[in-house]
């Protein structure tokens, strides 16, 4: 029988960039600039807990929610090992049921692009709005696909990538399929794995994704009781996007939108 690489282990090895300290520094800068007395935090789609753990180390009361049992198990173990009091809960991010429990929420590292249905987006935003106290903040990070479009780097094509970490090697062959009628696209990946030279069971992964614009976020906020306070080009308080509607040639195109939202009563 061929061994299988667990999805949570794969996520820990290859699933996210090593920007946790930068991201959490940014959150604290945002809280100082736009909030007041922020202490209770909701980490939406927390994964294995990297941001929740760091914010708890900094003295915040954090609740992390995710739909993956295996990722939450790793997050809970890490919190226990580090003597951190964090509430990790299994929740679907489009089915939140909190009521005015948090001063701020955050959803970092591009997770929101997996919500391709408008109904699901509205459910997420309404759920977070209900979870926040009056004038609560919601920080969202989304990939800026338009920067690739502007450079002519987004098309129906196949890319390969090889990665290796902690004795595990991963080879991906990913095909991009762009939806012809809407701002959605698909990444279909054929993935092979090896652990210490021994091949593991391969996987096929199909992920439909959404290409967000800042205008779309603005409309979404108007529908769900939020206002956009500021947009940044990455998790850096100094990288503001001052005028998203300005059309110009830009030397440095930001690969992300990071939006700071405030809930309205």
What does this structure look like?
The chain is α/β, with parallel strands linked by helices. The chain has two domains: 7-147 and 211-263, Rossmann fold (3-Layer(aba) Sandwich), CATH 3.40.50; 152-209, N-terminal domain of TfIIb (Single Sheet). The chain is built from seven helices and twelve strands. The protein has helices at residues 7-14, 20-34, 50-57, 69-81, 118-131, 145-150, 214-224; strands spanning 40-44, 61-66, 87-90, 102-107, 132-143, 158-165, 168-178, 184-195, 198-199, 203-210, 226-232, 256-263. The strands form two sheets. The chain has a seven-stranded mixed beta sheet with strand order 3-2-1-4-5-12-11, with helices on both faces. Strands 6, 7, 8, 9 and 10 form a five-stranded antiparallel beta sheet that branches. Helix 5 (118-131) links the parallel strand 4 (102-107) and strand 5 (132-143). Helix 2 crosses helix 3 and helix 5 packs across helix 7. The longest helix has 15 residues, at 20-34. The mean pLDDT is 95.
């Amino acid at each position: 029988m061929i061994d299988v690489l667990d999805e949570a282990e794969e996520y820990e090895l290859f699933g996210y960039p090593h920007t946790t300290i930068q991201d959490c520094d940014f959150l604290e800068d945002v809280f100082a600039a736009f909030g007041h007395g922020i202490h209770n935090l909701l980490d939406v789609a927390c994964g294995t807990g990297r941001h929740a753990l760091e914010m708890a180390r900094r003295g915040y009361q954090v609740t992390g929610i995710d739909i993956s049992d295996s990722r939450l198990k790793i997050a809970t173990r890490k919190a226990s090992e580090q003597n951190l009091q964090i509430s990790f809960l299994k929740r679907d991010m489009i089915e939140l049921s909190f009521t005015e429990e948090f001063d701020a929420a955050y959803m970092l590292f591009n997770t929101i692009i997996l919500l391709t249905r408008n109904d699901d987006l509205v459910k997420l935003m309404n759920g977070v709005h209900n979870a926040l106290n009056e004038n609560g903040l919601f920080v969202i990070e989304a990939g800026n696909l338009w920067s690739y479009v502007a450079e002519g780097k987004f098309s129906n094509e196949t890319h390969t990538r090889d990665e290796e970490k902690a004795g595990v090697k991963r080879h991906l062959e990913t095909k991009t399929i762009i939806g012809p009628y809407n701002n959605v696209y698909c990444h279909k990946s054929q993935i092979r794995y090896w652990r210490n030279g021994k091949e593991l069971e391969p996987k096929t992964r199909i992920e439909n994704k959404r290409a967000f614009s800042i205008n779309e976020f603005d409309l979404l906020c108007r529908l769900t009781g939020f206002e956009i306070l500021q947009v940044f080009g990455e998790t850096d308080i100094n990288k503001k996007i001052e005028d998203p509607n300005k059309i110009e040639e830009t030397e440095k195109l930001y690969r992300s939108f990071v939006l700071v939202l405030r809930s309205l009563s």
